[in-house]
């Protein structure tokens, strides 16, 4: 439409221009403000939902407790053996415990994150009993398998670099997992033996006694170890002699028992072989 205000005809009547609508001060009116707020809500709704949906926010205290105990353990071992040993030793323990944790979670069983006790390793605690001794044994065996794998990584690095420290780290990794496979509570081997045949606990008690008698240096640690084993294993062995066993043991079929036994004894063989090999290498290459 042509604008009459732009006409060049002289004397032509032109109506007065319409006044522009009054401008509101302050930018947006109340309606504009509501629209703006609505747009902001839509824009940031996705971010808000994502932030509130992060489950790790609920895990923050647990993560702080777990990793806090990890760093305290590193500091503790570093006081006696140096930072390098403290870090590697705690990482070896962490890998072992993650084997338990991840396997429990894979079976849908709630479990705590690894918690470290300076001087005494670490532990993962499941919330409630496992549905079966078979699942319990598999998750228990996963810890030493992961731990032996970590020791194998150290050993491979030692072979490629010939550094005495990594031979020593591999030896410690293999040895601790081999010791932990003794079939007696509270070791992992005791939990695995419960699904194979609880009478293995007696064999484990004999093996632990032989190790303490011929190989282990007597110290505060070994005394505490004997005390813990006595409190946890002796009552179970006495109950076993009276014919009292975990009722879930009757639910473990023969095929599962054989499979767990084969996996267990193969793992023991690998751990012992790794311990012997790295012990010889440590003696050959010297201490770190």
Describe this structure in words.
There is one protein chain. The chain has about 290 residues and is mainly α. The protein has two domains: about 60-125, no CATH class; about 135-288, no CATH class. About 70% of the residues lie in helices and about 0% in strands. It has a two-stranded antiparallel sheet with strand order 1-2. Helix 4 crosses helix 6 and helix 4 (about 135-160) packs parallel to helix 9. It is globular and about 50 Å long. The protein starts with about 30 loop residues before the first helix and ends with a helix. Mean pLDDT is about 80; it is low at about 1-20 and about 25-50.
Helices and strands in order, then pairings?
Elements: H1 30-53, H2 56-81, H3 83-106, E1 115-116, E2 122-123, H4 133-161, H5 164-180, H6 188-196, H7 200-214, H8 220-241, H9 254-285
Antiparallel strand pairs: 1-2
Helix pairs in contact: 2-3, 3-4, 3-5, 4-5, 4-6, 4-9, 5-9, 6-9
Proportion of helical residues: 55-70%
Mean pLDDT rating: 81
Annotation field: number of helices: 9
* SSE topology string: HHHEEHHHHHH
Report the C-alpha radius of gyration, rounded: 34 Å
The parts where pLDDT drops under 50 for at least 5 residues are 2-18, 23-52
If strands are numbered along the chain, what order do they take across the biggest sheet? 1-2
Structure in a nutshell:
The protein has nine helices and two strands, in the order αααββαααααα. It has 288 residues and is mainly α.
């Amino acid at each position: 439409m042509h604008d009459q205000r732009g006409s060049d005809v002289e004397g032509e009547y032109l109506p007065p221009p319409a006044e522009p609508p009054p401008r509101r001060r302050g930018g947006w009116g109340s309606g504009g403000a509501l629209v703006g707020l609505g747009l902001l809500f839509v824009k940031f709704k996705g971010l808000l939902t994502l932030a509130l949906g992060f489950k790790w926010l609920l895990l923050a205290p647990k993560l702080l407790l777990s990793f806090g105990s990890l760093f305290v353990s590193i500091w503790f071992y570093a006081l006696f053996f140096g930072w390098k040993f403290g870090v590697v030793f705690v990482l070896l323990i962490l890998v072992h415990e993650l084997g338990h944790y991840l396997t429990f979670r894979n079976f849908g069983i709630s479990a705590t994150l690894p918690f470290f006790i300076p001087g005494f390793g670490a532990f993962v605690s499941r919330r409630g009993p496992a549905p079966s001794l078979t699942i319990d044994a598999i998750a228990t065996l996963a810890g030493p398998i992961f731990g032996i794998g970590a020791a194998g990584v150290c050993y491979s690095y030692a072979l490629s670099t010939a550094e005495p420290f990594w031979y020593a780290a591999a030896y410690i990794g293999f040895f601790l997992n081999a010791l932990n496979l003794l079939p007696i509570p509270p070791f992992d081997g005791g939990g695995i033996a419960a699904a194979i045949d609880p009478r293995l606990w007696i064999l484990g008690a004999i093996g632990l006694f032989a190790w303490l008698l011929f190989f282990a240096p007597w110290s505060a640690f070994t005394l505490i170890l004997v005390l813990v084993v006595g409190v946890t294993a002796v009552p179970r062995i006495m109950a076993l002699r009276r014919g009292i066993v975990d009722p879930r043991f009757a639910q473990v079929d023969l095929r599962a028992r054989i499979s767990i036994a084969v996996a267990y004894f193969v793992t023991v063989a690998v751990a012992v072989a790794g311990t012997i090999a790295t012990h010889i290498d440590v003696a050959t290459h010297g201490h770190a």
